[in-house]
Design brief:
The protein is α+β, with helices and mostly antiparallel strands. The protein has one domain (about 5-165). About 40% of the residues lie in helices and about 15% in strands. It has five helices and four strands. It has a four-stranded mixed sheet with strand order 2-1-3-4. The longest helix has 16 residues, at about 5-20.
């Protein structure tokens, strides 16, 4: 991989050092997705387990290597939804991360996000129609976001797409 800038070189070295120190992750590609998510979500104060749970990158992920849903800055899981109470100014944030170990992104990467967003962000969509296209983790992550959207329909939505290269 040709590194084009000092920032890319520094980030690559930081990744290599962390990967070597955290050897239990046998696949370097998976660890890169975890590393990218950790760096992007630094301000969210998530545990290592919470970051790991959001990493979905595998086959049929629609370009979504990691997906996180936050309600009032709290990381959401399906089991927490029933206990929520919305207050004035409540917000939902959907963060989708695509991590590539390349120096740039192709148009295909952007088109995957466009397609998955059109397919799975529509309220009332039947996920079963997409089970052959997207893996179960991706379908569940978008379903969680839609459930929160329907439950609290008067709040601020803060979508975020992040590319990490």
């Amino acid at each position: 991989m040709k590194l084009n800038s000092n920032g890319q070189r520094i980030l690559y070295e930081l990744f290599r050092q962390e990967y070597q120190e955290n050897a239990p992750h046998s696949e370097e590609a998976h660890y890169f997705e975890l590393f990218a998510s950790t760096q992007i979500l630094k301000g969210k104060d998530l545990s290592d387990e919470e970051v790991e749970q959001g990493v979905l990158g595998s086959g049929n992920d629609g370009g979504c290597d990691s997906i996180y849903t936050f309600f009032n800055d709290c990381n959401m899981t399906e089991d927490l939804v029933g206990d929520l109470v919305a207050s004035k100014g409540a917000s939902i944030e959907l963060i989708i991360i695509q991590a590539k170990r390349e120096t740039s992104f192709s148009e295909d990467a952007i088109m995957k996000w466009k397609t998955v967003s059109q397919n799975l962000l529509e309220i009332g969509v039947d996920d079963s129609g997409y089970s052959s296209r997207y893996n179960e983790d991706v379908l569940d992550a978008f379903s969680l976001f839609r459930d929160l959207f329907v439950l609290f329909n008067s709040f601020v939505i803060k979508p975020g797409h992040f590319f990490s290269a």
